[in-house]
What we know:
The longest helix has 14 residues, at 2-15. Strands 1-2-3-4-6-7-8-9-10-11-12-13-14-15 form a 14-stranded antiparallel barrel. 11% of the residues lie in helices and 50% in strands. It has helices at residues 2-15, 33-36, 138-142, 299-302, 317-326; strands spanning 47-56, 64-75, 80-91, 96-107, 109-112, 115-130, 156-170, 174-181, 200-212, 222-233, 236-247, 250-258, 271-282, 285-294, 305-314. By secondary structure, it is mostly beta strands. It has a single domain, classed as monomeric porin ompg (Porin).
Amino acid sequence: MYALRAAILAPVLGLGCLLMAQDPHFTQFYAVPTYLSPAFAGTTVQSRFALQFRDQWPAIPGAFVSYAFAADQYLPNLNSGIGLIALRDQAGSGALTTTSAALQYAYEIRLKHKVYLRPAMQFGYASRSVDYSKLVFNDQLARGGDISTYSYLGARKSNYMDIGSGLLFFTPTAWLGISVQHLNEPNQSLLLGESVIPRQFNAHGGYRFKLRKGGMVRKEAQSIVAAFNYRAQGKFDQLDIGAYFEREPVFAGLWYRGLPVKSYKAGYQNNDALAVLVGFKVGDWRFGYSYDITISRLAVNSGGAHEVTTIFEFADQSKKRSMARRRVVPCAKF
């Protein structure tokens, strides 16, 4: 996936003749789980709001900045979860932007005591545009910066419907899911012709190892959460895998991104980054920060990636305790 992002940089920064797109990537992919799959909508026992910001490769002018906002709610009387997610991705100093919003619905099927299956659908709308005035063309360089090629191109925008689906299985300690985004393979072309968005496939899961339950006399709950997400889109794929230690109110972890068993080009091993994650919880708020340490050949010049997440969850405490006893969702929080 990062190989594709590198491929985007060249035309956006200098050529302006070919513009491709890829879905934004987040290191803390479980902080906004409904971006990973609509099946995560309503997997808390309370209302949840999340904000996420990512600055990828800040040392490279005109790289990628992504934002995400999500809200979801569990509806116990309907055995359902609903969600709303909005994203904005900027590349090439904001020259290429993609903005999207989607509504999500998941239905929860109780297979047996504390074992659940959640099929889900997502329906969204997206807009993709390019501002040619922020790009530099060859003839501008030759003429000393005179307005040239882009003045003839005009405004370019593409609007399209976008459909996704997901399926999630979970028990009190483990979860496993799959999702498919861009089921309808929408046309995102900014010029004449067709440029479809390839379907994106995700397989994700994890396990929560409970080291100590919370209790009386300063006994904070302790857990180790191990998780993964395999993602494939077009001819590119990647694996995120790692774990973090959680002792309320703080947590810390380490993640790896890459797929070393696969190489897109001879001599270029598919290793991308190691990510360090830290965070804390205050009341109904959770805050997380991660930094990607680039380990590919781009390491010297990329500047890594910074990511910040903020999550707010709230509910009537009596209802929260009652629901938690009947329905335990072990999924990672970051």
